[in-house]
Specification:
Chain A: InterPro entries: AAA+_ATPase, ABC_transporter-like_ATP-bd, ABC_transporter-like_CS, ABC_transporter_ATP-bind, P-loop_NTPase. The complex is a heterodimer of chains A (273) and B (278). Chain A has 273 residues and is of the alpha/beta class. In chain A, 31% of the residues lie in helices and 23% in strands. Helices cover 75% and strands 0% of the residues of chain B. Chain B has one domain: MetI-like fold. Chain B has eleven helices and no strands. The chains are: A alpha/beta (273), B mainly alpha (278). The structure holds adenosine-5'-triphosphate and magnesium ion (MG).
Chain lengths: 273, 278
């Protein structure tokens, strides 16, 4: 049946479906920032006696795409969990700021490494989770729009179990985007995907960010991915920021150019210092 | 006996040869054995190889059925038994379900009641008959109590198991997306526990009929057990066998109903999905 709906379905050498090329669609670029600014002052987090974050000072301007890299266990997920309110800081403070610099409550969303879809709800129903409770008529339109954004409109009635890993992660992204967040945290959202799917998903993430300009915090263990997507990359080590670099290359970026490779080298050095 | 079963696994891959062979027989294969047994039994009885005192011929059972059905007595007895079964299931099942949910979601409730319940579980419910007779006499209350008690444990244990095994990552996701209380229960916890709750329901249906058979043989003015007991006094083996057949059919019917309900509500579960044609 899917052959009829999607006649140009491509498969790779192992017969696995190749995700469509997102970058092919023109980007409706948005230049003014819409997100919230984030200010962390001396943020610390300890679990019992174990200190995981030891004084993080960080200013993220509204609409910035910030990538966080670092060794496994250095506290990246912990930091994101603090920012979306899943955990409480044990020291310091976190403030979200609007355009005028006044404190505000953000509309924050998080995408995890696993899609975490409700298996008993349809794709559309899962996206609607992102809207919370509210009017029905408008919900359908917004869910459809969000699914359209990740190019899965035709799967709205499907069970999540019937989707590929990449498609599931796209649904999770649509669920996060449907409420038009001004701050999106992504915790290794592409970590579980194969290399080919990752490249197209990176373009998708970059495209929705360019169109919506929310503030993005993107945790990844892939330095090349960080450099390709982010405005700025910070390296975390033993609960501290050990490197903070700005990447001001034109978008969309060409991969593997000499200066990006040089930057990747610097980041790797800082991570394993 | 473990009352907590594993959830249904993914359906096995179809074995092409077996499938083709089976479809040619049109699904009649499962009936082959019972039909052969009944035919042999009938032949043996007609030839006088089996005494009708001990074992009635299948046809005699059919006549007994006809007899009971046309007098209207059968309907009364089946209804009486079904009513007992359903009220026992409703009472025991809803208490088990409620306690399973409460103990699955609240540490306090779990700490307060689970150990006690686990201790009570080790007493076979039929061993309580003498005590139950002292408490309630031999009337309907005693039957209701025994059935409800029998049904209670599988539903309690499997609901608890189901609630406790809902993926914590999904619950965390629900919380980040602003769910709490009733919404979190309705959207995440209950659907996640449902497959396990159905396992409990199907276990408890078996226990429900078993308990009822014994409870009805205590004393009753109507019901399948009553019918069988009366027939035993008058040495009507055909009616006794008829009662057994009806118990079996009712048990099967209840299981089919539960299975249908299960596959309707668990359509999202890979086990219950129609295979996608390649
Ligand atoms: N709830 C918790 N209780 C106790 N310790 C915790 C808890 N959560 C995280 N930790 C500890 O905090 C440290 C940082 O964990 P975190 O998940 O933030 O690492 P990470 O940088 O995201 O690593 P990875 O790249 O492997 O995901 C780890 O040493 C972990 O053991
Ligand atoms: Mg992590």
């Amino acid at each position: 049946m899917s052959e009829i709906i999607n006649p140009v379905r491509k498969t790779n050498a192992w017969g696995k479906e190749i995700e469509p090329e997102f970058a092919a669609r023109p980007v409706r670029e948005r230049h003014e920032a819409r997100g919230v600014g984030i200010r962390l002052t001396g943020v610390a987090k300890a679990f019992g006696d174990v200190s995981v974050l030891r004084g993080i000072d960080l200013d993220v301007p509204a609409g910035q795409f910030l990538a966080i890299v670092g060794k496994s266990g250095c506290g990246k997920s912990t930091l994101l969990r603090l920012l979306v309110g899943l955990d409480e800081v044990t020291g310091g403070s976190i403030a979200f700021l609007d355009e005028s610099g006044a404190e505000t409550r953000p509309n924050a969303r998080i995408v995890f490494q696993e899609p975490r879809l409700l298996p008993w709800d349809s794709v559309g129903g899962n996206v609607a989770v992102g809207l919370g409770e509210g009017g029905r008529a408008e919900r359908v339109a917004r869910v459809t729009a969000a699914l359209n954004e990740v190019q899965l409109t035709e799967k709205a009635k499907e069970w999540p179990a019937r989707l590929s890993g990449g498609q599931r992660q796209r649904v999770a992204l649509a669920r996060a985007l449907v409420s038009r967040p001004d701050f999106l945290a992504l915790d290794e959202p592409l970590g579980a995907l194969d290399a080919l799917t990752r490249i197209t998903m990176q373009s998708l993430v970059e495209r929705v960010w360019r169109e919506q300009r929310f503030t993005a915090l993107f945790v990844t263990h892939d330095v090349a991915e960080a450099v390709a997507l982010a405005d700025r990359v910070i390296v975390l080590d033993e609960g501290r920021i050990v490197l903070d670099v700005t990447v001001d290359h034109e978008r969309p970026r060409e991969r593997g150019t000499a200066d990006l490779a040089e930057l990747e080298g610097r980041l790797l050095k800082a991570i394993f210092a | 006996m473990t009352l907590v079963a594993d959830l249904p696994k993914q359906a096995a891959l179809p074995r092409p040869n077996f499938e083709r062979w089976r479809s040619r027989l049109g699904g009649l294969l499962p009936l082959l054995l019972p039909v052969t047994v009944i035919a042999t039994w009938q032949t043996a009885s007609s030839l006088g190889l089996i005494g009708s005192r001990l074992m009635p011929a299948p046809l005699d059972v059919v006549y007994a059925f006809w007899d009971k059905a046309s007098s209207g007595q059968l309907a009364i007895d089946v209804l009486a038994s079904a009513q007992r079964a359903i009220s026992g299931l409703l009472v025991g099942g809803s208490i088990g379900f409620a306690l399973g949910l409460a103990n699955g979601m609240s540490k306090f409730s779990y700490a307060l009641t689970d150990t006690t319940l686990q201790m009570l579980r080790t007493i076979p419910n039929l061993a309580l008959i003498p005590l139950v007779i002292l408490w309630f006499g031999i009337g309907e209350e005693a039957k209701l109590f025994l059935t409800a008690l029998g049904v209670f444990f599988p539903i309690y244990l499997n609901t608890l198991h189901g609630v406790r095994n809902v993926d914590p990552q999904l619950i965390e996701m629900g919380r980040v997306y602003g769910m709490s209380g009733w919404t979190l229960f309705r959207k995440v916890i209950f659907p996640g526990a449902l497959p396990s709750i159905f396992v409990g329901l199907r276990f408890s249906l078996g226990i429900m009929w078993l308990t009822l058979i014994v409870a009805e043989s205590m004393a009753a003015s109507a019901g399948i057990g009553h019918m069988a007991n009366q027939a035993r006094e008058f040495m009507l083996t055909d009616v006794v066998v008829l009662a057994l057949v009806i118990y079996a059919l009712l048990g099967k019917l209840a299981d089919v109903l539960a299975k249908t309900l299960e596959s309707l509500t668990l359509q999202w579960h890979p086990t219950f999905q129609k295979p996608v044609k390649a």
